[in-house]
């Protein structure tokens, strides 16, 4: 299969945040996910991090006409890299080569000076994982993501995240329960 594909493992899993078609569940070996903070953003965000034994679940989608400009602009705090031959698992007979966005290590803030995670951003990610992978996928997301010691800013009442979505009560309660199970620090606005 030819073409230009990205692998999304955060907000890109939520199809309400983009218009890329033919999205399909996939996984990549050799990567894990973590919350990071960067000089290029005012809040923490998810990044893929190389990890020999890691496994990330997410979505792949084709970039129309190989035009990466819009997605590169959306993912401006990242750089694109290949996931590696044989690292992708998906339902296609011949898995395509895919690119993954990784935070630029040169701009990562020290762990002790992390900026907060926006709850509206986390909500969008979890809503996407719930729709694609179900409750088990949400549980796996929380269990396999690093950086939960980063404070979380509760901005649900007035979302700061530009692609915020409205969650129903059950979705919000699911996020809140997992944060409570992690003993995450949630800063109320």
Structure description:
The protein has 189 residues and is of the alpha/beta class. Helix content is 24%, strand content 31%. The protein has three helices and ten strands. The chain has helices at residues 69-74, 119-144, 169-181; strands at 5-8, 24-36, 45-62, 78-82, 88-90, 98-103, 117-118, 145-146, 152-154, 186-188. Strands 1, 2, 3, 4, 5, 6 and 8 form a seven-stranded mixed β-sheet that branches. β2 and β3 (45-62) form a beta hairpin. α2 crosses α3. The longest helix has 26 residues, at 119-144. The chain is globular, with a radius of gyration of 16 Å. It starts with a strand and ends with a strand. The mean pLDDT is 91.
Q: Which keywords apply here?
A:
alpha/beta; 24% helix; three-stranded parallel beta sheet; 189 residues; Hypothetical upf0131 protein ytfp
Radius of gyration: 16 Å
CATH class: Alpha Beta
CATH topology: the name is Hypothetical upf0131 protein ytfp
Q: What's the average pLDDT? A: 91
CATH architecture: Roll
- Helix share of residues? 10-25%
The gross shape turns out to be: globular
Strand count: 10
Q: Which spans have pLDDT < 50 for at least 5 consecutive residues?
A: none
Strand content: 25-35%
Order of helices and strands: EEEHEEEEHEEHE
Q: How many helices?
A: 3
Number of domains: 1
Distance between the termini: 48 Å
CATH superfamily: Gamma-glutamyl cyclotransferase-like
Main pleated sheet: 7 strands, mixed
Class based on secondary structure composition and strand pairing:
alpha/beta
């Amino acid at each position: 299969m030819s073409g230009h594909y990205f692998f999304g493992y955060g907000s890109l899993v939520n199809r309400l945040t983009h218009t890329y078609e033919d999205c399909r569940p996939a996984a990549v070996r050799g990567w894990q996910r973590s919350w990071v903070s960067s000089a290029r953003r005012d809040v923490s965000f998810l990044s893929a991090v190389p990890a020999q034994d890691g496994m990330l679940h997410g979505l792949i989608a084709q970039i129309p006409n190989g035009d990466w400009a819009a997605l590169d602009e959306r993912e401006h705090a990242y750089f694109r890299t290949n996931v590696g031959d044989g690292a992708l698992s998906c339902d296609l007979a011949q898995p395509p080569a895919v690119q993954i966005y990784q935070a630029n290590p040169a701009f990562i803030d020290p762990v002790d000076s992390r900026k907060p995670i926006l709850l509206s951003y986390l909500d969008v990610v979890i809503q996407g994982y719930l729709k694609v992978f179900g409750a088990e996928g949400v549980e796996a997301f929380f269990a396999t993501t690093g950086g939960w010691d980063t404070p979380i800013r509760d901005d649900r009442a007035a979302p700061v995240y530009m692609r915020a979505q409205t969650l129903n009560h059950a979705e919000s309660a699911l996020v809140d329960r997992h944060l409570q199970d992690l003993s995450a620090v949630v800063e109320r606005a």
